[in-house]
Write a structure and sequence with these properties.
single chain, Arc Repressor Mutant, subunit A, Tetracycline Repressor, domain 2, 2 domains
Amino acid sequence: MLKPRKTPVQARSVATVDAIMEATIQVLGTDGIKDLTTTKVADRAGVSVGSLYQYFPNKESLLAGVLERYLDGVTDTLERTCAALHGKPIAVMGRTLAIAYVDCKLARPEPSRALYAVATELGSATIVRKMCRRGDIAIRAMLETAADATFDDLDTVTTVLQGVMSGPLQRVLGFGSKLKVKPLREQMALAAVAYLEAAASR
């Protein structure tokens, strides 16, 4: 069972779930997925295990909830960035979007690495597909408004651009590659802009 037992409505319940989620990220960062337990999370959150189980019936549902919240936050950032870039030149679109994506993913690198392990452990394809679809919609809508270019196949360009951005970060977060953030931001921005310039039909 990967779904939460119940959804918080009252402010106090929302605060409790927020504390549990944050504690889960902290324990993931220090102990890793294998050694994470609901008892450790409850202790870190300052709640009883019984309170935790009111919202998450087991470790798997807790991890799925944290993963979905994390991916939702990344996707929210992508959507807001794309919306702000409507009508801009493609060089501005590519650079700004790539840098925003890197900054969001690497704001807390250790928990992000742990959440990559969570995604693998849970086989969470459904959650990932949902977030990718939201990203596709936002990027496609942005590219349609480019001030200085058009694209013959927006669906393909959208998919490849997502891959240009997510591929290097998968190596950093999922496979433990040691790269400095500043050069990574610049190189990914260059790659995104170069791809859009090459794919544009003008």
